[in-house]
Input
Amino acid sequence: VQRCRTRLARWIDDAVAAGELAEVPSNALAAMLLALADGLMLHHAADPSGFRWTNIRRAVDTLLDGIAT
Output
């Protein structure tokens, strides 16, 4: 988990440096995204018909658009 979070945080830092994302705490955002992914997979395993992945993608895209520059 730490290795994935570190890699994701680096990608976030790179996107901030490139002006693609607003200034955000990269480690915190990376942790949130990983926890979101873990939670979604857990919920899908417990209730496969509980949501559609295409709708999850649209929702996540909308959230990330909020920090895009």
